[in-house]
Amino acid sequence: MKTILLSAILAAGVLSAGTVQASPDLAKSAGCVKCHDIEKKKKGPSFQASAKKFKGTADAEAVMFKTITDPNGDHPEQKAKPEDVKTMIKWILTL
Protein backbone atom coordinates (compact mmCIF):
# COMPACT_ATOMS: atom_id res chain seq x y z
CA MET A 1 0.00 0.00 0.00
CA LYS A 2 2.84 2.39 0.84
CA THR A 3 4.42 1.70 -2.55
CA ILE A 4 1.22 2.63 -4.39
CA LEU A 5 0.80 5.83 -2.37
CA LEU A 6 4.42 6.83 -2.90
CA SER A 7 4.12 6.14 -6.64
CA ALA A 8 1.00 8.30 -6.86
CA ILE A 9 2.70 11.18 -5.05
CA LEU A 10 5.77 10.99 -7.28
CA ALA A 11 3.64 10.82 -10.42
CA ALA A 12 1.69 13.91 -9.34
CA GLY A 13 4.95 15.75 -8.76
CA VAL A 14 6.28 14.82 -12.19
CA LEU A 15 3.04 15.87 -13.88
CA SER A 16 2.88 19.22 -12.11
CA ALA A 17 6.55 19.92 -12.86
CA GLY A 18 5.91 19.24 -16.55
CA THR A 19 3.00 21.66 -16.52
CA VAL A 20 5.06 24.43 -15.00
CA GLN A 21 7.90 23.89 -17.48
CA ALA A 22 5.45 24.12 -20.36
CA SER A 23 4.34 27.60 -19.31
CA PRO A 24 6.64 29.67 -21.56
CA ASP A 25 5.09 27.87 -24.53
CA LEU A 26 1.65 28.25 -23.00
CA ALA A 27 2.22 32.00 -22.53
CA LYS A 28 3.21 32.23 -26.18
CA SER A 29 0.23 30.25 -27.47
CA ALA A 30 -2.17 32.23 -25.28
CA GLY A 31 -0.85 35.50 -26.70
CA CYS A 32 0.62 36.79 -23.42
CA VAL A 33 4.01 37.45 -25.00
CA LYS A 34 2.50 40.16 -27.20
CA CYS A 35 2.51 42.41 -24.12
CA HIS A 36 4.82 40.59 -21.67
CA ASP A 37 8.37 39.23 -21.74
CA ILE A 38 10.11 37.08 -19.15
CA GLU A 39 12.80 39.67 -18.35
CA LYS A 40 11.92 42.96 -20.09
CA LYS A 41 9.01 45.34 -19.77
CA LYS A 42 6.92 45.59 -22.90
CA LYS A 43 3.39 46.99 -22.94
CA GLY A 44 2.88 45.12 -19.68
CA PRO A 45 5.31 44.23 -16.88
CA SER A 46 7.83 41.45 -17.31
CA PHE A 47 6.91 38.11 -15.79
CA GLN A 48 9.93 38.45 -13.47
CA ALA A 49 8.71 41.87 -12.28
CA SER A 50 5.30 40.39 -11.51
CA ALA A 51 6.92 37.53 -9.60
CA LYS A 52 8.98 40.01 -7.59
CA LYS A 53 5.94 42.17 -6.87
CA PHE A 54 3.98 39.25 -5.44
CA LYS A 55 6.84 37.42 -3.70
CA GLY A 56 5.80 36.52 -0.14
CA THR A 57 2.16 37.48 -0.73
CA ALA A 58 -0.07 34.73 0.64
CA ASP A 59 -2.90 35.27 -1.86
CA ALA A 60 -0.70 36.07 -4.86
CA GLU A 61 -2.27 33.45 -7.12
CA ALA A 62 -5.81 34.61 -6.38
CA VAL A 63 -4.97 38.30 -6.82
CA MET A 64 -3.13 37.71 -10.09
CA PHE A 65 -5.94 35.49 -11.41
CA LYS A 66 -8.56 38.14 -10.64
CA THR A 67 -6.41 40.88 -12.21
CA ILE A 68 -5.96 38.91 -15.42
CA THR A 69 -9.49 37.55 -15.80
CA ASP A 70 -11.68 40.39 -14.46
CA PRO A 71 -13.52 41.81 -17.49
CA ASN A 72 -13.90 45.15 -15.66
CA GLY A 73 -10.22 45.36 -14.70
CA ASP A 74 -7.20 46.98 -16.29
CA HIS A 75 -5.83 43.85 -17.99
CA PRO A 76 -6.83 43.57 -21.65
CA GLU A 77 -9.21 40.78 -22.54
CA GLN A 78 -7.43 37.46 -22.92
CA LYS A 79 -8.62 34.23 -24.44
CA ALA A 80 -6.73 31.67 -22.31
CA LYS A 81 -8.74 29.06 -20.45
CA PRO A 82 -8.94 29.63 -16.67
CA GLU A 83 -6.86 26.52 -15.95
CA ASP A 84 -4.18 27.77 -18.35
CA VAL A 85 -4.12 31.16 -16.63
CA LYS A 86 -3.64 29.41 -13.28
CA THR A 87 -0.80 27.31 -14.72
CA MET A 88 0.94 30.40 -16.08
CA ILE A 89 0.53 32.24 -12.77
CA LYS A 90 2.15 29.35 -10.90
CA TRP A 91 5.02 29.42 -13.38
CA ILE A 92 5.42 33.21 -13.16
CA LEU A 93 5.64 33.01 -9.37
CA THR A 94 8.59 30.62 -9.69
CA LEU A 95 10.67 33.18 -11.60
Can you characterise this structure?
- With 95 residues, this protein is mainly alpha-helical.
- It has one domain: Cytochrome c-like domain (Cytochrome Bc1 Complex, Chain D, domain 2).
- 59% of the residues lie in helices and 0% in strands.
- It is globular and about 30 Å long.
Number of strands: 0
Mean pLDDT: 84
**CATH topology grouping:** Cytochrome Bc1 Complex, Chain D, domain 2
Fraction of residues in H or I helices: 55-70%
The CATH homologous superfamily name equals: Cytochrome c-like domain
Radius of gyration: 15 Å
Secondary structure tally, helices = 5
> What kind of sheet is the major sheet?
none
Tell me the overall shape. globular
What is this structure, in a nutshell?
The chain is an all-alpha fold. 59% of the residues lie in helices and 0% in strands.
Tell me the layout of helices and strands.
Layout: H1 2-21, H2 23-29, H3 47-54, H4 60-69, H5 82-92
Helix pairs in contact: 2-5, 4-5
What are the main properties of this structure?
mainly alpha, Cytochrome Bc1 Complex, Chain D, domain 2, 59% helix, 95 residues, 5 helices
